[in-house]
Amino acid sequence: MKLTYRNAIYQALYDELDANHDVVLLGEDIRDNVYGYTEGLVDVFGKERIINIPLSEASVTGIVCGAAMCGLRPILDLTIPNFLYIAMDQIANVAAKTRYMNSGTSSLPLTIFCSSMCGNGNAAQHSDRLHSLFMNIPGLKVLCPANVQDMYLMFKEGIEDDNPVLCFADRSLFWLEDDVSVVSQKKIGEARVVREGNDLTIVTISGCLHMVEEIYPQLLEKKISAEIIDVRTVVPLDFSTIKKSVEKTGRVIICDTANRTGSAASEIASLLIQYAFESLKNPVQIVACEDIPVPFTRILEQQIIVTKEKIYNTILNKFKW
Question: CA dist 49 to 76, 102, 112, Å?
Fold first, then answer.
């Protein structure tokens, strides 16, 4: 079936709510479809399973952690990544650690969903991309779907997982449309080789994939054969697929929507220096967001975030061809 990225979120929610009565969805104004992917869910599944929450992310996250321990499979839509800061104690000290501290005798099947909004003038307190931050907290799985198919299947897989999962949708992709297979496939922990090439490995995280696909014809015009890898999940990270590609191409650029310092991109670069240094013909290149709070003015915002132009210029100017 053909879906947009946004409708893939809705379809995954609908299918999981329909398949398992223990699945419940909580979020701010979730019954009112404020964000465009929950229309009619309350009419189908009722107010006991589609629950509007108060503006108290810390307390609600604690509640859903308890609900998950007691047998429900809650999906918590916190909408804006920055709201996760408010719930950090519950995410980092309860959700991430409980199963380990109980020696695996209990599960915590909680999915936390939010939409990264960088690039749309939403200002500093609504525009962070936090997938890298949560890489540093053991016990969480962290998803960054970059196309319609992965948004549907990876979100479903995360909801069905018995571990706490964070799913970061990229709002800049909401209008992408593609054919979607509903056949379940394992995607968490497996990177995807989007295109094969011999001259350069381009590792993409989240919405960077779409930027790279847009400049791909220009790279072909320059006789650059690029292998494009979509990481898909930063935890668990499929480093072996990245390493294998870099051993073939000898050049790598890592594109990450997060802030550069302490990013998923910098972690991948570190691993490549450790385990694939002999294969490198050039220094590893990173294109990521500058370490500056995101400006409200979109003209200024474009100066610090990742763009396809920055990726293209880095490829042309930072490598020896």
Answer: 12, 28, 16
Give mean pLDDT in consecutive 10-residue pieces for the chain, a chain of 321 residues: 96 98 96 93 97 94 97 96 96 96 90 86 88 97 97 97 97 94 90 98 97 97 97 98 98 97 97 97 97 92 95 95 81
> CB count, 10 Å around CB of 159?
25
Element (H, E) at 141: strand 141-143
* CA dihedral over 219, 262, 206, 97, signed as positive or negative: positive
17's tokens: 């709510």
Cα dihedral 227/235/77/85 (nearest 10): -110
Distance of alpha carbon 164 from alpha carbon 297, whole angstroms: 35
Per-residue CA distances from 213 to 3, 15, 62, 113 (Å): 19, 30, 40, 26
